[in-house]
Amino acid sequence: MTEKKNGRPTQPGSHSVSYQHRRRKPTPILHRLAAKCKGLNWRWILPALLALLALFSFVCYATGISRQQAEGEAQTTTTEAPEPTPEPKQPPAYVFIYGEGCPVNMQAMTDAWAAEAGFEKRYIITDEERYELASAITAEAIGEPFAGKVAVAQCILQACEDDGIRPIEALTRYKYSTRRPEPTDEALAAVAAVFDFGHVATSEPIKYFYAPDLVASLWHESQVYVMTINNHRFFKEVQHGQGNQEPARSCD
To answer: Which of 45, 110, 177, 190 could lock onto 252 through a cystine, CB 3.0 to 4.6 A?
Structure first.
């Protein structure tokens, strides 16, 4: 009988095996997973996996739609944001030298004239009102001399002071021409003479006028006649309680 080196006898029919040979070989992970999957019920697992995949796809789709809507709303908000409304530009007044119009700030210029001369303006108007007045006077008295234009401006100023209204409202209330041509230099000068410096065509408070060659007006003739300048007859208002107090109807 042979003996191992450790002195222990070897059983008959047996043979010596090393420790490494006795160890079980490791099983690959895939084999283990396959072995476990064999015991699973795929009849229920496969539909569950498909349901989870469908749910995941739906969540991704819904998230994408929400993001697109949010971006669209943000873009719409940015696009539709109202822009600040620019302030309307007032039409310029002009000083005409040798037939050429030079735009100036008439309000500032007349303020300087009044300060230099040491008097207060009779009626302070804006450049917009000045332009509108000169345009209306041009429409009413284009063929009249400078004195006639001053008289028309005096009628408008008298209406403003009597009724406590602004010039543009007076043009509407007293039914002046609705035409607004480019104002002439004489019309602008007439506005400055009357409203700024208090010049008048007559010391009487004239308020109405009409052109008898163009229209007949019994109402105007019912007022107090003052004077005639070229083609226009001018009137002052009758005393309260006498005559018709209807606003004037000026001719175009």
So the answer is: 177
